[in-house]
């Protein structure tokens, strides 16, 4: 049996770019798409009413991305299924 807590700990240490790369690698290996899972989760989330006072929308502003800003923008787009505005 796999050490699930160890896997959780290792995944928690990943950067956003590393997590995006991991998602792509798993999609290729298993022949699945994370976008489909996001769509299903969004449909379930829309069906369930959010508790009063819980914030459901967020505004993200990239103020600095360093040398690899294009990779950061691509990672944000991949994770949110949205383009930057």
Structural features, described:
This protein is mainly α and 85 residues long. It has helices at 4-12, 16-30, 34-47, 69-80. The radius of gyration is 16 Å and the shape is extended.
Structural class comes to mainly alpha
SSE pattern, N- to C-terminal: HHHH
Separation, N- and C-terminal Cα atoms? 44 Å
| 3D shape | extended
Descriptive tags:
4 helices; single chain; mainly alpha; 85 residues
Summarize the structure.
By secondary structure, this protein is mainly alpha-helical.
Indicate the topology.
Layout: H1 4-12, H2 16-30, H3 34-47, H4 69-80
């Amino acid at each position: 049996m796999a050490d699930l807590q160890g896997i959780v700990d290792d995944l928690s240490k990943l950067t956003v770019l590393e997590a995006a790369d991991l998602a792509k690698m798993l999609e290729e290996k298993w022949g699945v798409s994370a976008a489909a899972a996001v769509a299903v989760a969004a449909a379930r989330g829309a069906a369930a009413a959010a508790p009063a006072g819980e914030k459901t929308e967020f505004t993200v502003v990239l103020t600095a991305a360093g040398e690899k800003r294009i990779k950061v923008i691509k990672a944000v787009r991949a994770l949110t299924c949205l383009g930057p505005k």
